[in-house]
Amino acid sequence: xxxxxxxxxxxxxxxxxxxxxxxxxxxxxxxxxxxxxxxxxxxxxxxxxxxxxxxxxxxxxxxxxxxxxxxxxxxxxxxxxxxxxxxxxxxxxxxxxxxxxxxxxxxxxxxxxxxxxxxxxxxxxxxxxxxxxxxxxxxxxxxxxxxxxxxxxxxxxxxxxxxxxxxxxxxxxxxxxxxxxxxxxxxxxxxxxxxxxxxxxxxxxxxxxxxxxx
Length: 214
Known about the structure:
Layout: H1 25-40, E1 47-53, E2 59-65, E3 68-70, E4 73-79, H2 83-90, E5 93-100, E6 105-115, H3 118-127, H4 130-138, H5 148-161, E7 173-187, E8 195-201, E9 207-211
Antiparallel strand pairs: 1-2, 1-5, 3-4, 4-7, 5-6, 6-7, 7-8, 8-9
């Protein structure tokens, strides 16, 4: 048995106050993202957890990379035929979360996911290195494969097939845009009295701002 009850840490690097936050969560997310990028030292600031409700009825979380965020929401890319892609297609209610431990910050986003336009998916796919493009084609993501060698041999064949050729985006691969309905910002504070500020989308496109008890 591993007793972790003595694992404790004091949080004292920053604060989150209503008097210093913007009226919408995207602006605050942008501020936090670049503060972590510039000062936090996290190697992959855009790493986020995506939680979905699977076809088996169980929630499942996995880490993916955020590739763009705008006033519309948050975009990541995946295989639409993957377990994740099928889950989102069946139930677009998802949760994204970021944990930036160096700045003692967490962001939790509840929203609705929908596929990005083909133009958006094509544009991002074209920006990827050829190896990543071929990897998207060769991998039937989430499907059982006989071995690592099976994947590597298929990749070698694709490298020959597409040598000196433009690699097209497979139709089963593309982006999801998550439109936020609720965004919670968590800032670690001393004595476990953490700051929690929640933004909730309103019908008039404004945001309701509330402080939550830690």
